[in-house]
Design goal:
The structure is a single chain. By secondary structure, the protein is of the alpha+beta class. It has one domain: Alpha-Beta Complex (Ribosomal Protein L22, Chain A). The strands form two sheets. The protein has a three-stranded antiparallel sheet with strand order 1-5-4. The longest helix is centred in the N-terminal third of the chain and has 19 residues. The chain starts with 9 loop residues before the first strand and ends with a strand.
Length: about 130
Amino acid sequence: MIPTGNSIIGIGTDLVDISRIKYIVERHKDRFLNKVFTQAERDHCMSLGAPWPSLAARFAAKEAVSKAFGTGIGAELELSSIGVVTDERGAPSIVLDEKGEKLLRERGGSRVLISLTHTASLAQAFAVIQ
């Protein structure tokens, strides 16, 4: 539930083909994983029997958050600036690096909310900046 009195600064969404992420990881291996995902994300996803849906959902989250900021991925925000962590119940949340936190403050935000989902072939993320 979103507490009352918090304004929405930005929203973003993204949809990713899971097989595309699998292909890129198989082709570029650690180079892609290290450039795009935080260590915590790599550890979590690669510990799963099938890491591809979780990697794709996290990739979608990074894109959705960058869209919510209105910057896209580039000079102001890198893919690795945005991390997805899960709590003990599996609920996802966003962790930003210094660059991301600076952008959040500049935009007047206090937090980034995220929702992730996937089917057998697609992963989607929806982000809200408050």
